[in-house]
Write a structure and sequence with these properties.
Order of helices and strands: EEEEHEEEEEE
Distance between the termini: 11 Å
Number of strands: 10
Strand content: over 45%
Oligomer: single chain
Helix content: under 10%
Shape: flat
Radius of gyration: 18 Å
Strand order of the largest sheet: 1-2-3-4-5-6-7-8-9-10
Length: 195
């Protein structure tokens, strides 16, 4: 699974010059492989940048195991969510290395974290899909150093491959250095393509 997001906006207040109010991007790659009986192993990597929040680059690299809690028969057989009611819920747990580099001379930090995640998908109707991905990365070194990422969304199929998506994205980084922004959230409206 590959995912990429980019957000950039400018705003002009009172007719003055416009200023950048958001400059953020994120990309993630996730590969899981079956270990039989609803168990799987995974490798994942993620890169984040927030120019306004002072984060030059955050790298997250992790490995772990997971378990499929629920998977509809149709999803099991076809690998697709094609019928109303099709559901899949996976839990994952592993270890992750989190490295952060900050702008404006704020330095960098690294930590080893435990990873706990949940990935839920449910086809509500023939054309409407609900999804929620949640990842919690608490550092094993410092209790207040943790990352939470949540992606809650609805997508509406407009053809067999294209969809319109509405989502709420939330990211909290308790390990951010003083002066850097810890939380970020965004409502998005986008277009997606399934291969």
């Amino acid at each position: 699974r590959l995912k990429a997001d980019f957000f950039h906006s400018k705003q002009s207040k009172g007719g003055g010059p416009s200023e950048t109010t958001e400059n953020r991007w994120s990309t993630e790659a996730w590969y899981d492989y079956s270990l039989g009986d609803n168990h799987f192993g995974y490798v994942r990597g993620r890169l984040d940048h927030d120019g306004i929040g002072g984060l030059d680059l955050r790298r997250i690299i992790g490995v772990g195991l997971g378990h499929t809690i629920k998977r509809s028969d149709n999803v099991e057989e076809t690998g697709k969510f094609s019928q109303a009611g099709d559901t899949e819920w996976k839990l994952s747990y592993g270890f992750t290395h989190v490295h952060r580099e900050y702008s404006d001379g704020l330095g960098s930090s690294s930590s080893i974290a435990v990873e706990a995640g949940s990935a839920f998908r449910k086809r509500l109707t023939e054309t409407l899909m609900l999804r929620h991905d949640l990842v919690w990365l608490p550092s094993i070194e410092e209790f207040t150093d943790y990352v939470i990422s949540s992606d809650l969304g609805l997508s509406i199929d407009v053809s067999q491959s294209w969809e319109v998506q509405f989502a709420w994205l939330y990211d909290y980084d308790g390990g951010a250095v003083a002066g850097a922004r810890k939380d970020r959230y965004k409502y998005t409206l986008g277009v997606g393509y399934r291969f």
